[in-house]
Structure formats: structure tokens, C-alpha cells
Amino acid sequence: MDACGASHDALLQLPWLPVSISDCHLLAKSWFGDSAYHVLLTDTHSVWEERMDSAAIQRRAQELNKRLRAPVKAFFAHLCEVAQPTLTGSGGRPDSESLISLTRRDDGNISMKLKSELAGLPFYWEFHCTPAPVTVVCVQLVRPLLAMSQLLQRQVEQLGGLLMRKDVEIQDYRENGATLSRERLQTDAFEEQSHREDFMAKTLPLLQHDTPSFNADLQHLYATIVAHGNTRKRKLSEGGCVEEEPPTAEPDLPSTLAGPVRSEPGETGEQSANGKLDTARAKMADRASEQQPRATSSDPGRPSSKPKKKKVGLFR
Amino acid sequence: MDACGASHDALLQLPWLPVSISDCHLLAKSWFGDSAYHVLLTDTHSVWEERMDSAAIQRRAQELNKRLRAPVKAFFAHLCEVAQPTLTGSGGRPDSESLISLTRRDDGNISMKLKSELAGLPFYWEFHCTPAPVTVVCVQLVRPLLAMSQLLQRQVEQLGGLLMRKDVEIQDYRENGATLSRERLQTDAFEEQSHREDFMAKTLPLLQHDTPSFNADLQHLYATIVAHGNTRKRKLSEGGCVEEEPPTAEPDLPSTLAGPVRSEPGETGEQSANGKLDTARAKMADRASEQQPRATSSDPGRPSSKPKKKKVGLFR
């Protein structure tokens, strides 16, 4: 399952996108390779994933489409084309016949059923998402979110310091008899403690109606941190799993940001960016926009209309 | 396992404390009830937990201490007394004979072995921590961290707005010919974009040596958010698990902050605080300080020296 190993690094670079399937609102990451995919979903109560390689896709396609006799590559492009708009939250539907429905099963799994049309015949697909391993949740959510919180906390402190310096400057002007041309321009002196308390009291209730959970600023910060983490990850000589880490290794931010990803030794060089914000931003934009083109870009090679010509090749 | 149900709410109120066992640095939460405990550990690569009720503790104590014939209550206080200082990162050892060692096992589990002395005889204990369910990781880390990031992001935005208002005021003073008594008091105009880029470029590398991962400010914010969440949780009429939620439920911050905790219906009224910062802060302090007293506070009832008197009652 090489594709799956690599897919973890590809997924790590992707933002968590809000998606809505069957009136169920989730955050999603989806990676579609050449003939493999990796989907991550979360409602913040749990996290689900499905990793499928070429062989597994072939088997399931056979089970769901008895008459299908085509190789994976012949219908995978169509699967991407139909599934990706939904899984990236872009909402657009490639064709009106395509339908994706989500079901939460009693066993705690999530099933996404896809009904489409390929070569003039119905094409069925099902994503079977099961609870993700804790290590995946840590890599994709806990570690980045912890680093984000630390960075933002520091930024809050720094801005607080800047505000107090502004107040000192303002105070000096006033003491020298300076006056404002408009009274309303006068600001209150910044008091960190009281400001934070006031902010919390006012903002906590407001956030109750805040959607999506992962706004653009946070997605951007997530991308920056993940890119920075992968840069350090590339530099690490040993790329083992947690158990292989020296017991003296501190779980400090570097490891939080960039510790080796357990059970995903897949190379990251191609996927990762350097720690600079601009690069990270560019990459963020790339990733976000990539998701859409990825499906369509594969069309020239294997357009969804192409199979119609060799209908016999696909279905019997 | 009532105690375990309640323990989840008790744990949620606790801060993530940095602990160091056998040169292994982790973040930990531990709850010790009357004769039950719940331990959560994370190195941010994975999360482990062990929940033990009275019966399970009795069985293991028997296995590890063949000659032990005492009821749980007779030795549980001693177990708390020996284990809690380590699990709360307070470092202090109740007695020099007590030793706790941590081993990461190949199966991905964590084993903490405790050797102590009770009633003049060696007393052994083992914590068997296995990877925590994803739902627990979501409740204890993902949801609070996501809410923390959102709050901090908003605070950064608000402080940026304040800085720009200060600049407008300063600009007005200057335009009216005001001058500074000391040149060094002059500040540069705040430019959000460039400031953020500069901050990221400077802070990301610095954070590499940042420990612990969960500093006091973040622990405080964590406690505030969790307390706010539990307040809303108490107000919720239905207290089911994820699957029972109406599919139309938005995964927005209210649910992120306060959605019903899957598989932990334990009552929260006693544990939770209202959303106000002061109360949350007070509770935070309570929780943090509680951990220590909890073990010692049980001493008067059953001091570790007491068993010596009825040595026969403990060991045969």
C-alpha cells in the first residue's frame, strides 16, 4: 500500500474543508492518487478514514457493479470526478445523475454511497469510513492544533505588548499637551487582564453560532505549521515511529510540529514546503485549488466520455 | 463502570499536565476516585488511557501481590499517594522506596510499573495504558484545541483592530503638531499582514525549543472552554452520542465546544463551571490544586502507616 503511505503526507498538506453530505456537516480531507484514495472525515466528535489502493478499489467496484469488467484506471477518473466535488466542499456536481448519500451506521462507521452513470450504465461506489487510528488523529489534528494554539497565544501576547507601547507613546503626547481634533479618536488604555476577561465573556457565547469550525485564517495557519513541520521532518535523519524515538526526546513544539509520523514512512520531500510563510501560503493555495483540478486534469488522459466508445470494455 | 462514566467529566475539567517518567516526557490527566481511577497520557503522537473500577483494581492487585488479602479501600489510598505525584508532574515522592517506571511496548501500549512498600511489605502496581478511543481524543484534545484556536484567532484579530485605532489616534496627535519627549517612545504603524508574516518567520523556529507543550496560558484557556462547554452541555436536553444527533446538527463551535460527549453520559453538574472567566479560573486553580490534596486528604481516613497496625489484614 505505497500509495497509502504517501497519501498520509499528501493529506497532511491539505486543509480541513467543511463538507455537507446528506445534511451532515463535517470537515474533510481527501487525497485521490492515480488509482488509490485516502479520505478523512470528522465531526469533531470522532474521526473516520478510508484508505484504498488499486486492488481494493478493483474488488469493491466488482462487487458493486457486477457487470463491470474494466480495469481500475478505466473508471477511477470517473470516481474522482463524481466524488471530489462533494469531498472538497466545492458543492458543484459533475452531472445531475450523480448522487452521494452519507449514512452513520450503528457500528460507529460512516458509509457514503455514490450512484452515478458511466458509459451509459449505472455506476455504484461506496466509501466505508471507519474510526481513524489515534496516531492519525494526532498527526492530522492534535499536533497541528496544539502548535496553532501555542503560536496564536504568543501572537496575542506580542500584540498586547505592542498595544501597551502605543499607550506609552499616546500618554507622552498627552502629557506634552497634545489634543485630538476629534474626541472619538481617543482610545482607552489597554489592560491585558481585563481585556482578556472581557473578550472571553463576550466571545465565548458568540462563537456558538460560528461556522465553519475551520475558517480561512485557521486553515492558513494549519498549512503554515504543517509545512514547517514537514520541513523539519525531512531534515530528521531517523524517520521511525514513536517507539523508536529516544526516550529522552522532549514532546516540545518541534516534536509537536515535526516529530516523525508513526507508521507513515512515506517520503515527504515532494509534498512539503519550507517554513516560510509565503511558501506555505502558496502551497496552501496550491493544495486548496489542486483538489478540484486534480480530477479534471486527469480527464484528458481518460475522459469520462471516453469509456462510452469502448462500452464493452467497461461493462459486459 | 459508573465511576468511569463520571471520570470522563472529571478528567475533562483537568488541565493537561507535563509529566516525566523514565525520561519519557508526556502530557497527562489523571482522576482518582474513591476506589477507581482514569489515566490519560499523550506524547502528541498518540494518546493512551486506562480506566479501572474497584473490581478490576482488586483483581490486578491480587495478581501482582499474591499475599495481599486486603479490600481495595485498604490499599487504594496508598496507590493514589504513590502514583499521583508522578502523574500530576508535581515530582514529589511520598517515600523514597516508591519507584515508577514507564515502558513503551511493541504492541503500542504503555505500561507503568510501580514498586512501593505497604505495611512493611513490597507493594506492586501496574498501569496498563492502551490507545484511547478516537472519541476520547476528540473530547479531551481535538474539540478544546479547535475552540482554543478559534478564540485566539479572534483575539488576534481584535487586538489588531485595537492597534490600528491607536495608530489613528497617534496620527491625529502628530498631525496636530504633537511631539514626543523621548524619540524612543515612537512606535511603527501596525500593518496586520506584514506583522503576521514577520511574527511567523521569527516565532516558528523559536518554538522548536518551547516546553512544555501546554503552557499555563493555554491550560487556562483550555479550562475556560471546557467549563463553558460543560455549562452548555448541562443545558442540553438530549445527551446522546454522535449517532443520536440529528443529522442536521452543525459541527459549529457550539457542538465543538459543547456537543454531547459520546459514550460518557456521566453527570457533569458537579464538575462543570459556568462560562465566566473568573469562575473558570477559580475552577482551574481548584482542579490543579485538587490533584495533590486528593491523595493526602484521604490520609486521615486511611494513612499509609495505618495498615502496619493491622498488617495481617493486608497481607497473609
TrEMBL record, chains A, B:
Ranges for domain XLF-like N-terminal: 15-130
Signal peptide: none
This protein's UniProt keywords: DNA damage, DNA repair, DNA-binding, Nucleus
GO cellular component: DNA ligase IV complex
Compositionally biased tracts (Basic and acidic residues): 278-289
Region Disordered, residue ranges: 236-316
KW DNA repair (keyword) present: yes
Compositional bias (Polar residues): 290-299
Domain XLF-like coiled-coil region: 133-181
Molecular-function GO terms, alphabetical: DNA end binding
Protein name: Non-homologous end-joining factor 1
